[in-house]
Amino acid sequence: MSTTAALLYEAVEVGQALPSLRKRVTVEQIRAYAEASADRNPIHLDEGFARSVGLPGVIAHGMLTMAFANQMVTDWLGDRSRLKRLDGRFGGMVQPGDEVTCTGTVARNDEAARRVIVNLVVTNQRGEKVLTKGVAEAEFPKNEPLK
Amino acid sequence: MTDQRLVGRTYETQPFDVTEQSIRAYMDAVGDTRSSDPLEAPPTYAMVYGYDAYWQLWSDHEVAMDVARLVHGDQRFTFHRPVRPGDRIRTTGRLANVTVRGEMELVTFEANARDDQGQPVSESTSLFIIRKP
After folding, report:
1. Gap from B111 CA to chain A (nearest CA, Å)
2. Minimum CA–CA partner of B47 in chain A
3. Are the CB atoms for B93 and B53 separated by under 8 Å?
4. Across the interface, do A66 and B75 touch by the CB < 8 Å criterion?
5. What is the per-residue pLDDT for B2?
């Protein structure tokens, strides 16, 4: 994707839904994440090992799910440097073949600080929450350039 | 069970030299490939430049965490500035807390990342859950 124009603070309203982001997680993506992050714990890579420690099979890194939530917010902001805080609880395991959907809603804003708080959740194809208590906080520039 | 006396132990990483190649590998892996000029890493790339601090915790024989039974329970980040190719980042990890809840052990780990000017880049608090066999 190409560079997009950054969101204007004035365009943000409390209660507004962010454009959702859907991702299908594959074995290949989990392997690529393991390589890019250096986190090669075999619970993410070795099916037999994962089962031997009581998991249903290999699971995605929690931080891959959080990266999806990160992307949804920064795609909306149009500028990665505006994201100041990102929190979440990993409420469920993500396995290869799962399709997860990130959704977010503007919870409140702080006019003086030009900050916006977004509540986030990531669900799988069965509607189960795999990331809960998600919160993102963004800060907008004090003097935005006029387009 | 992790010895409570180890709470407070810290782990220093070597400087992590951020490259365009490393940022792009991360972006490709997570599927967040929107370009920017200058190139800025997705904020969650904090897990990449700070990874060695986590690795030192997980491989600390005295702490002796059973990483095969480790799941990431909760994660919080504060981002102070964007990360770009050419940045040199050091991360200090700290074993902040260890508690037991039922059959599980809960380990809280903090990671503070600073640039080569000593300025803050990001802060992270992770909760790791060690499932019992």
Report:
1. 14
2. A37
3. yes
4. yes
5. 73
- What confidence tier does B62 reach under pLDDT thresholds 50, 70, 90? very high
H or E element: which one contains B98? strand B88-101
E strands, A27-128, are 83-90, 99-110, 115-123
- Report yes or no: B61 and B19 within 8 Å, Cβ to Cβ: no
Beta bridge partners of A60: none
List pLDDT tens digits, range B28-54.
999 999 989 999 999 999 999 999 999
B97 touches A: beta carbon within 8 Å? no
Instruction: Look at A74 and B79 and tell me if their CB atoms are within 8 Å.
Output: no
Output phi, psi for A38, to 5 deg.
75, 5
Over residues A19-52, the pLDDT tens digits come to: 999 999 999 999 999 999 999 999 999 999 999 9
Establish, for the pair of chains A and B, how many residue pairs have beta carbons separated by less than 8 Å.
124
Distance CA B16, CA B26 (A): 15
